[in-house]
Design goal:
Aspartate Aminotransferase, domain 2, 14 helices, transferase, Aminotransferase
């Protein structure tokens, strides 16, 4: 089976560990174990429980406590509608592996996280890409989507809020996408790893809007716990069962300690998400102020998530710019070409605040030096 190189992950693998100013990272600044345990009523008791754990495979389908915590993030999803995975990246692969076959038709938004179109392509599916255009605020043209969907369409893939743009489709648009999918009896796979930060209107889950809606989520982005590698599929029971059938071939279980720590976060979701939302809002304002002062940069201001797609006005390719910025200034961004777009840079604005400020200042210097 041939598959396209995963451009954004290859880029991060190459440069992330050596970056002095990493403003490409998309998670809210990660917590330490100590910080996470401080949200619990008795941190020392939690540590004692971990020390006494016998490290078996644990609950093969995930602990009841974990699934109960995840179900609390939705309006209509029950425990039996949830299956844990190795991060959201594992959940996306598992869903596409379980649902898509050679000859199927898949419609995916673009740009988006590359899994959503490259994996079905590798299985022999016909993938149609719905272009999300800068001029349209990176929102989908619903008439164009309707024209692309047919009775052959197996699945519509969306990413909400979107990576790289940080633009969220709100309820009215999501409901129209549901209508289009329902007309073809197609699934909707919604990668919702950035859902939870409502910078504008509250963003519902596709799994709560549509009987064939499937949500992918994780502990990485909004919970600041990427190192746990805990994600999930939330959707119709028959889809979860099909995914479990395929999961047996790829993942026996998630780690017991990762599951346990995830439960602590989910039990304290209100406090953690509020803490992280305040940080996201503050640092988005830092970015927005910077953009408005920088004449060589434009963007669509994000209304969800932790990423932004900056459009730059220099006579230089985005990959060359990103490589030189890293080499000359120590600043890491992701070139737009990793998402199939030239003259753009993706940044993450929810990491370390001082690193963001210094990274943007150095980016400004680079732009001025190369105008």
């Amino acid at each position: 089976m041939k598959i396209a190189p995963f451009k954004v992950e290859e880029w991060m693998n190459e440069y992330e560990m050596d970056a002095k100013y990493n403003i490409a990272e998309t998670c809210v600044e990660s917590m330490t174990v100590e910080e996470l345990l401080s949200f619990s009523d008795n941190p020392e008791a939690k540590l004692t429980e971990i020390r006494k754990m016998q490290l078996t495979y644990g609950d093969i389908k995930g602990s009841e406590a974990f699934k109960k915590g995840v179900s609390s993030l939705y309006q209509s999803i029950e425990v039996e509608n949830i299956l844990p995975s190795h991060g959201a990246i594992g959940a996306n692969f598992l869903l596409l592996y379980s649902l898509v076959e050679a000859g199927d038709e898949v419609v995916s938004v673009f740009p988006t996280y590359q899994q959503l179109y490259s994996i079905p392509e590798s299985f022999g599916a016909e993938v149609k890409k719905l272009e999300l255009k800068y001029e349209a605020g990176f929102l989908p043209d619903l008439e164009e989507l309707a024209s692309m969907v047919s009775k052959k369409t197996k699945l519509i893939a969306i990413n909400n809020p979107n990576n790289p743009s940080g633009v969220a489709m709100e309820k009215e648009i999501l409901n129209k996408i549901v209508e289009i999918a329902r007309s073809a009896d197609a699934y909707i796979l919604a990668d919702e790893v950035y859902r939870g930060f409502d910078l504008g209107e509250k963003i519902p889950s596709v799994a709560d809007l549509y009987e064939k809606g499937i949500s992918v989520g994780s502990m990485s982005k909004v919970f600041s716990l990427a190192g746990l590698r805990m994600g999930w599929v939330a959707g119709p029971k028959e889809v979860v069962e099909l995914c479990q059938l395929h999961r047996d071939y790829t993942t026996i279980s998630n780690g017991m300690i990762a599951d346990y720590l995830s439960v602590i976060a989910l039990e304290n979701k209100k406090e953690i998400l509020q803490r992280n939302l305040l940080k996201v809002k503050k640092q988005l304002q830092i970015l927005d102020d910077w953009v408005h002062k920088e004449e060589l940069i434009d963007y669509i201001k994000p209304n969800g998530g932790t990423t932004a797609f900056l459009k730059f006005k220099l006579d230089i390719g985005s990959e060359e710019l990103a490589k030189r910025l890293f080499k000359e200034k120590g600043v890491l961004v992701v070139p737009g070409t990793a998402f199939g777009r030239e003259n753009f840079l993706r940044i993450g604005f929810a990491g370390n605040e001082q690193e963001l400020k210094e990274g943007l200042a150095l980016l400004k210097d680079f732009l001025s030096e190369n105008r």
